[in-house]
Amino acid sequence: MEPRKSPGSAPGSTPGRLVTTTAALLRERGFHGAGLTEILTASGVPKGSLYHHFPGGKSELAAEAVRQSAAGMVAALERFADRAGSTGAAVRAFCDRYAEDLAASDFRDGCPLAAVAAESGALHETVRREIGAAMELLVGTFARRIAAENPAHPDPAALAMEIVAAVEGALLLAKALRSTAPLKTVSERLAGRIAAELHPRGHPA
């Protein structure tokens, strides 16, 4: 699944500022914690402009922030995988980056997808649908990488789902405990598990 393009959302544009600000607040506070007034104040955008670009208001804006956050995560994952040369090393690099970001933000920032997904029972359908699509995009990206690394793997999608579930869970736990230990533990265990599955005869991962 490819991330959908959204017109008029360049970083310096009015919708771009709104989306960037919203994504940052979602990472820190989730959907319900990110107030519309705060979004407008932080982005420097008047309320009328928001509804001009996002007629659906906060829900449409949050859905776009989720879409772009997912696309950014996938782009980062692809870069890590290309540089690392293996899925296991890419997962380790991905977790290391998140651990650095968490520590740098004093454990305020997390993953916008996980933060919003935790509120799924009380979300507008527009946002809930985009969260589902974003998670599917992440799982699909890992599955494609797994299949490319070991075409004989019996179930790339299942392993990919396990990776995404473990990393997203570790992010939530790390934020709650104010410790990067969950991310470090999960990254090391996952890297070993992935290497063992993709290279069962001890070939380099």
UniProtKB/TrEMBL annotation:
Keywords noted in UniProt: DNA-binding, Transcription, Transcription regulation
DNA bind region: 35-54
PROSITE patterns linked to this entry: HTH_TETR_2
GO MF terms, alphabetically ordered: DNA binding
InterPro entries named in the record: Homeodomain-like_sf, HTH_TetR, Tet_transcr_reg_TetR-rel_C_sf, YxaF_TetR_C
Residue ranges of the TM segments: none
Residue ranges annotated for the HTH tetR-type domain, each copy included: 12-72
Keyword Acetylation listed: no
UniProt superkingdom: Bacteria
Stated name of the protein: TetR/AcrR family transcriptional regulator, lmrAB and yxaGH operons repressor
Source organism of the structure: Streptomyces aidingensis
